[in-house]
Amino acid sequence: MSTKPVKTGRPRRYDLTPPRGFTNPEAALAAGFLQELAERVYDQVQDLPLEALDFVPGDSHLSIGWLVLHLAWAEARWIGLATGGELDPAVAARLEAGDLERYGQPPASSGEAASLIELCRKVQEELTLPALRPAAELDREMERGGLKVTLRGVLQQLTWHWTYHSGQIGLIRLLWGSDYRWTTENLRSPRPGH
Question: Topology of domain 7-137+144-182, per CATH?
Fold first, then answer.
């Protein structure tokens, strides 16, 4: 293992204040979770050079850059399925490289950290948040793309997905030679009404 720098990560936050302007408070809380999980991933990757983002350990066929792109692709896919929302075609085309159909193939370079983070933010700001703000019913079952989905199920899937791949990103970063030290903020519940 090399002597690349160790990054002390931003504190994990648990007292999230849901974003404003949502019809359903549960949708607002889920949006807040997704935003916080994404911020954790951004913090894990923002300091990494292209060499680290493109690093593929062993026969894994996974790189940090591809995983970040895959996270954005999956969020757009699932939110689109559950809400009918769509992204700008140029943004959607950029996400195609993160399609799960490409899993197992050696990934091409996904680009610099700043452009990956910007792409993830576009998905959340231009699709996820606008689609979730008016959502009143989380448990209505819909048939979309050959799947039966509820918005609640999609939000739970995305929470799991961001968490799961954040762990993989941390491991690949460590295998590349740069550790990420996890830190924690105070463990407290959000105050009612905030």
Answer: Four Helix Bundle (Hemerythrin (Met), subunit A) (1.20.120)
CB half-sphere exposure, 155, CA atoms < 13 A: 22
The answer to whether 46 and 113 have CB atoms below 8 angstroms apart is: yes
Contact indicator for 71, 120 with CB cutoff of 8 Å: yes
3 state SS of 28: helix
Q: What is the value of pTM for the model shown?
A: 0.90
163 vs 24: CA distance, rounded Å: 23
Give the C-alpha separation, 171 to 190, whole Å.
31
Cα separation of 184 and 169, whole Å? 18
- CA-based diameter of the chain, in Å? 52
For residue 17, give both structure tokens: 């204040």
Strands (E), the chain: 7-12, 142-144, 147-149, 180-184
The string of pLDDT tens digits covering residues 129-154 is 999 999 999 999 988 778 899 999 99
Looking at residue 125, what DSSP letter applies?
Answer: I
Q: How many CA atoms lie within 13 A of 35 on its CB side?
A: 19
135 vs 23, 36, 189, CA distance in Å?
6, 20, 25
Rg of the chain over CA atoms, in angstroms? 17
